[in-house]
Specification:
The protein has about 210 residues and is an alpha+beta fold. Helix content is about 20%, strand content about 40%. The strands form three sheets. Strands 4, 5, 6, 7, 9, 10 and 12 form a seven-stranded mixed sheet that branches.
């Protein structure tokens, strides 16, 4: 009798390939060329080699948008039980979209450093001190792994006490932010998937009664 569990059988089915591709072998970049470079991202046209189980190679072509990693923060004022919400124009959705504080990481920054910098720059909010805040890591997720390498570091920041600091926007950046209560946050039409992940994480915390 086989000792394989249902989990093992399901995993074996995922690892098996109907067309001979070895899904446990790393892919190889056969050719790449940059076809666009902008201020925020660049695009590569790539030919990728997938190894087959008989030792051969199958070539596929993909375009990849290369993008700096980013931070996404659901910010919680613990004392007032309120959350920070932003609104700004987003070209991808062509909306003045509601969302959470977020931004790109600079070279050499840690996730924590980037999150606190972006929070201060965009909203003018900073923790009063290190011991008046707690960061609840949600996870690191690709925004759209089929087309971009942008990795979003998502977290919930719980502030016991905070202070106002000057905001610093880029020349073409126009962001509004305000504190809202939990019900208002849930009623707000947030369309960015990374923001939704953070909100769902906090929903679970509130439902299970975990301390912020």
């Amino acid at each position: 009798m086989s000792d394989m569990t249902a989990h093992d059988i399901e995993r074996e089915a995922l690892d098996a390939s109907s067309d001979g591709i070895d899904m446990n072998a790393p892919a190889t970049v056969l050719e790449r060329r940059e076809v666009y470079r902008g201020a925020i991202f660049h695009v590569e046209d790539m030919t990728i080699g997938l190894r087959t189980r008989d030792g051969g190679t199958v070539s596929i072509r993909r375009q990849v948008l290369r993008h700096a990693p980013c931070v996404v923060m659901l910010v919680h004022d613990v004392h007032a039980d309120r959350y920070l919400v932003e609104r700004e124009y987003r070209a991808g959705s062509d909306l003045f979209a509601y969302g959470l504080p977020a931004g790109l990481m600079d070279d050499g920054e840690t996730v924590r450093e980037a999150a606190l910098r972006e929070l201060a720059e965009e909203t003018g909010i900073a923790p009063e001190s290190d011991d008046t805040m707690r960061i609840d890591p949600v996870g690191d997720y690709y925004s759209s792994e089929g087309m971009t390498d942008e990795l979003a570091h998502i977290m919930v920041i719980h502030l016991d006490r905070w202070r106002r600091v000057p905001r610093h926007f880029d020349a073409d950046e126009h962001v509004e932010s305000t504190w809202v209560d939990w019900d208002t946050l849930l009623d707000t039409h947030v369309t960015a998937s990374n923001s939704i992940i953070a909100i769902q994480h906090e929903t679970i915390r509130r439902l299970t009664g975990r301390v912020a």
